[in-house]
Design goal:
Largest sheet: none
Distance between the termini: 107 Å
Length: 131
């Protein structure tokens, strides 16, 4: 019996990406959700580039070597799929929250009491310099 060749990871990624694009479009059509002109064009152009070139982006820094879509394309596809399923409002991205800085954990800043004049300084004199 002959051993099977291991599946090509690029071909698997290509097939998975095409299926995800088709699934998003099919879900939107089935649910009656109207995708914007840009979203429809995005789905079509990404699918066309994957079929033609095997991947939808040219810059290797934008995605993994074995991936068919870049990271940002994958995010947009997930947003379109969520909109098609009716989860658009819940999945809206939130801006980054302001961090708490580099403070120490479990440390609370010691509160200083306002300085009161020392006993010997009530007459307006100074302790510095002349006696």
């Amino acid at each position: 019996m002959r051993a099977k060749k291991p599946p090509d990871p690029r071909a698997q990624a290509r097939k998975a990406a095409l299926n995800a694009l088709k699934r998003a479009q099919r879900t939107a059509d089935k649910a009656g959700v109207q995708l914007s002109e840009w979203e429809g064009e995005f789905l079509g152009s990404v699918a066309q580039r994957i079929e033609t070139y095997g991947r939808a982006f040219g810059d290797p820094e934008k995605g993994g070597a074995g991936q068919a879509m870049s990271v940002n394309q994958t995010i947009k596809l997930k947003e379109i799929a969520a909109k098609a399923q009716g989860k658009g409002k819940e999945r809206e991205r939130k801006p980054m929250s302001r961090g708490k800085g580099f403070g120490r954990r479990g440390f609370q800043a010691a509160t200083r009491e306002p300085e009161t004049p020392a006993d010997g300084l009530e007459d307006g004199g100074s302790t510095h310099g002349k006696s």
